[in-house]
Amino acid sequence: MPAKTETNLAYAFAAESKASVRNAAFAQKAEIEGYSQIARLFRAVSEAESVHARRYLMLMRGRIGSTEENLETAFQNEIKANVEEYPNLIKDAAAEGHTGAQRAFSQARDVESFHAKLYKKAINDMVAERETEYYVCQVCGYISEDEAPDSCPICGAVREKFKQMT
Ligand SMILES: [Fe+2]
Ligand SMILES: [Fe+2]
């Protein structure tokens, strides 16, 4: 693939991914403020931006493999975030005394190691075809299997903060 195109695909993928999450957050805010029509618009644009992001990702060389390969990639990414990336971010937030960012980064680092475990388990279970339900903490991203816990083991959020995934 031509070098410039490869760089631009990576850039556009990152930009559209960010736009998607940002618009989803705007939708939540609009919902809280009682603007349900505006919330719907933000959600629609968020979905559209993620359509763009996925399209670019599929064009990026070697980024999407077989499910077996993708599980391994996803596992490695979680380990990297847990071991290499978040520790530096936590250190910087601590040095600058931003306790909110420090807490968010620390909880995310801990959550990533649980994500890694879920992937590892899925790699091992792939042939077993075990059915598992997943519940995601809407505060810290911790994933609980089979049922939502009374409170999140990472951030302490109550059961109602867990979203069941389909
Ligand atoms: Fe993760
Ligand atoms: Fe949590």
Report on this structure:
This protein has 166 residues and is mainly alpha-helical. The longest helix is centred in the N-terminal third of the chain and has 30 residues, at 3-32. It has helices at residues 3-32, 36-59, 67-95, 99-125, and strands at 134-137, 143-145, 162-164. Helix 1 (3-32) packs antiparallel against helix 2 (36-59) and helix 3 (67-95) runs antiparallel to helix 4. It has a three-stranded antiparallel sheet with strand order 2-1-3. The model has no long low-confidence stretch (mean pLDDT 96). The chain folds into three domains: 3-59, Ferritin, core subunit, four-helix bundle (Ferritin, Up-down Bundle); 65-129, Ferritin, core subunit, four-helix bundle (Ferritin, Up-down Bundle); 131-166, Rubrerythrin, domain 2 (Single Sheet). One fe (ii) ion (FE2) binds next to helix 4.
Query: What fraction of residues sit in β-strands?
Result: 5-15%
Q: What molecules are bound to this protein?
A: fe (ii) ion
The CATH topology of the largest domain turns out to be Ferritin
Name the poorly predicted regions: none
Short description:
The protein has helices spanning 3-32, 36-59, 67-95, 99-125; strands at 134-137, 143-145, 162-164. The protein is mainly alpha-helical and 166 residues long. The longest helix has 30 residues, at 3-32.
Q: Main attributes?
A:
single chain, 166 residues, 66% helix, 3 strands, binds fe (ii) ion, Ferritin, mainly alpha
SSE layout:
Blueprint: H1 3-32, H2 36-59, H3 67-95, H4 99-125, E1 134-137, E2 143-145, E3 162-164
Antiparallel strand pairs: 1-2, 1-3
Helix pairs in contact: 1-2, 3-4
Bound molecules: fe (ii) ion (2 copies).
